[in-house]
Amino acid sequence: MRSPEISIIGWIVVAAAAWVVVAVVVALLLGRVIRLRDRQVPGEAEREVPHPRQSARTPSKPPGP
User: Fold this and answer.
1) Taking a C-beta distance cutoff of 8 angstroms, is the pair 60, 50 a contact?
2) C-alpha torsion angle, residues 40, 42, 43, 47 (rounded to 10)
3) What's the rounded Cα separation, in Å, for the pair 61 and 9?
4) How close are the terminal C-alpha atoms of the chain, in Å?
5) Integer Cα distance of 10 and 4 in angstroms
6) CA-to-CA distance for 52 and 62, rounded, in angstroms?
7) What is the dihedral of CA 28, 35, 37, 49, to 10 degrees?
8) Is 48 exposed, middle or buried (0-12, 13-18, 19+ CB in 10 A)?
9) How would residue 39 be classed by pLDDT, with cut points 50, 70 and 90?
10) Is the pTM value of this prediction over 0.90?
11) Of 12, 39, 45, 61, whose CB has the highest number of CB atoms within 10 Å?
12) What percent of the chain has pLDDT over 70?
């Protein structure tokens, strides 16, 4: 009895399906990494920290005209 053979078109379909699966997994992992990294970056409000030596009475900006 002869074993079933996969034609060349079949191998191309299998390779294309594997390529798509790998691409989806890489895209999901990359998206997750970027999302987690963005959560760690402080926002604009968190970046404006007054200098420790600056007292509460000292204005942060010089008076304008």
Assistant:
1) yes
2) 180
3) 71
4) 97
5) 12
6) 18
7) 180
8) exposed
9) confident
10) no
11) 12
12) 55
> In sequence order, what are the residues at sequence separation of 6 or more whose Cβ sits closer than 8 angstroms to the Cβ of residue 60?
50, 54
Does the pLDDT value for residue 29 go beyond 90?
yes
What pLDDT, on a 0 to 100 scale, did the predictor assign at position 32?
95
3 state SS for the chain: CCCCCCCHHHHHHHHHHHHHHHHHHHHHHHHHHHHHHHHHCCCHHHHCCCCCCCCCCCCCCCCCC
Torsion of CA 11, 12, 13, 16, to 10 degrees: 120
